[in-house]
Amino acid sequence: MAFVGLVLMTAGPSAGRSSVEGNLHAVAAAMFYAGCLLISGRLCQVYPSIAVTAWMFVGAALSTLPMAVFESRFLPLDGYAWAYMAAYGALTLVAYLLINRGLGKLPTALVAVLGYGQPVIATALAVPLLGEVPGLADLIGAAVVVAGLLLATRPADTP
After folding, report:
1. Contact (Cβ atoms closer than 8 angstroms) between residue 141 and residue 7
2. Does residue 96 fall inside a structural domain?
3. pTM of the full predicted structure?
4. Considering its fold, how many domains does the chain have in total?
């Protein structure tokens, strides 16, 4: 049900640009993210989540360094750009620490379903931070996602 809500959120009219290539990149990213969740879920059940997160960041940094060298600008140019990168890095670190902590305590499938809440939260934050106004399809989709998350996290009926 949460996935259907995501489809509704993305199927509505958009003022932005969309392309087949961009959509294929998003699908590929989702596949890599799913693989990351599966591997991290297994590791977080055995090792502390902070250690798993630290090794994830080391691996990400080392694997992307060869690509970063070929960027037109390897390092930020001014203090604002450095601050932006530091804030982005801190947010990403906290997000992965929390996800990995959840993976150590909950089934990986449930953590993956709870991840469907990310676009809902991003849509809600885009209103005050970016001045974006969600459309009707976005609001309906978000409501369906939340309903799906409530269903996924309700206690199992015990006989």
Report:
1. yes
2. yes
3. 0.72
4. 1
